Amino acid sequence: MNNEMNNNINHNEQHYDLVLLQQQGLIDAQNVNYKLLNNAASEARSPWFISLLFGMSGILASLFFIGFLTLLLDNTGLLDSTLAVFIIGGILSGIGGFLFYNARLRHSAFWNSLAFAITLAGQGYIAYALLASGITEPLNIVLLLLVQLLMTVVIANFIYRLLSATLALSCLFYLLNYYHLSEVSLGLLALITSVTHLQRYRLAAFIPHKWRMNALEIINAIGYASAYVLLNISVYFIAAEYGNSFDSLDSYGEAFSYNYYLAQGLLTLASLYAAYFILKRYHIKLLSAAGLLISAAIVLLGIMSIYVSGLLATSLIIIIATANSQRVLLGMGIIALVGYIFWYYYQLDTSLLVKSTSMLVIGIALLLLRWVLIKGYFAHIKPNANDNQERLS
Questions:
Q1: What is the structure's pLDDT at 346?
Q2: Most CB atoms closer than 10 Å: which of 28, 129, 226, 299?
Q3: Which pLDDT value is given to residue 381?
Q4: What CA–CA distance (Å, rounded) separates 12 from 18?
Q5: Other C-beta atoms within 10 Å of 175: how many?
């Protein structure tokens, strides 16, 4: 699975990436680009079941390696030293990073799995050193966040970058909760998802030419991680509502409660921001008739789902995935939307008849809106040729 996804992300789209970047003048059409094209074209893919076995073996090997090394460190007494555990984790992470780089040059599934096992073990020790040490909270979470951001940038492997970015964004969510800024979480994650998926080539324009291909992979990993965390966090919020998890006392003994109106307002603004860039591809201004109609639909959906924020969040993911033709992201959004509706529908706070009626009205209204937009505005509009690169999955 690890190598299969790497092949799909790094090699299937590498040729298209380079062509689009050259057309936009973002990279030089010189020797380095032809070298990348030749590497991508000459690589022989491993069968999917071989990649799956190597990916599973890498995870299993990391668990055995952690167990063996933990017993060894415990017998030598190094496990009692937080600094020693942190240094060992850093050394293992460095070795794994070198192996990842070597695996990318060799196109070797074995080296890739070995690197994954060693790096995962190193990060486990670093996390243990930070969380189990005497470092006070939230400083340990901040340090773990910085370490994961560093690994996201340094490690030359899409799957590992995806895992590191997911953990980093989870740490960010924890810090926002710690400082009672939970309302910012949904809007911030939605903004990160929108920018990384809809503006990644414009972000790459600020990176030096020789680093742009690597930067695109990093942005892509952060984009998928932010979408995944956003979908999970939206479910967490509705679960917290029914479990009263947001009604607590802060460090000063004062009551703290979650402000659903502020959170939904920020999420709606992030959704409007994404709609602006999608409409821009079709030469449609946000203040035009079609733009205002779409904006009104987003605001209306945001108002109607104040206490069901996952509906707007999953709808945003589905719209971005459809606009960029990203099948993996689209599948994630649809599965999350269906699961979220089931979760909401079978909560016993309101009668099922009321919930059925409300969801039916919302569904019919959105279908009618889609029909009006397609027939009245989008039937004869083609996408902007300058923004075609943003549709690349």
A1: 72
A2: 226
A3: 55
A4: 11
A5: 16
pLDDT of residue 328: 86
Rounded to 5°, the CA angle 268-273-277 comes to: 145
CB 161 within 8 A of CB 221: yes
Check residue 136 and give its pLDDT.
82
**Are the C-beta atoms of residues 29 and 22 closer than 8 Å to each other?**
yes
Region of residue 107 (left: phi > 0; alpha: psi -120 to 50; beta: else): left
Angle between helices 212-243 and 309-324 (to 10 degrees): 160
Residue holding tokens 């074995």?
110
Closest CA to 116 of 65, 176, 171, 168: 65
Average pLDDT across each block of 10 residues of the chain; the chain has 393 residues. List them in order: 46 50 51 44 50 69 82 80 87 87 72 82 88 81 92 86 91 91 91 92 83 87 93 73 50 61 91 90 80 85 79 89 88 86 70 74 76 66 51 47
Integer Rg of the chain from CA: 23
Q: Which two tokens stand for residue 384?
A: 């902007």
CA separation for the pair 243, 346 (Å, rounded): 15
What are 337's two structure tokens?
A: 């939307």
First to last CA, the chain: 18
pTM, two decimals, is 0.77
Sign of the C-alpha dihedral computed for residues 332, 335, 338 and 344 taken in this order: negative
Contact predicate 152/168, CB 8 Å: yes
Q: Looking at this protein, which amino acid is placed at residue 175?
A: L
Token output for 245: 């998890």
Q: Is 357 left (phi over 0), alpha (psi -120 to 50) or beta?
A: alpha
Residue tagged 């972000």 (tokens): 203
Question: Using CA atoms, how far apart are residues 126 and 171, in angstroms rounded to an integer?
Answer: 14
Q: Tell me what pLDDT residue 128 has.
A: 87
What beta strand segments (E) does the chain contain?
248-249, 255-256
Query: What is the predicted pLDDT for the residue at 305?
Result: 77
> Residue 377's closest CA among 268, 245, 289, 251?
289
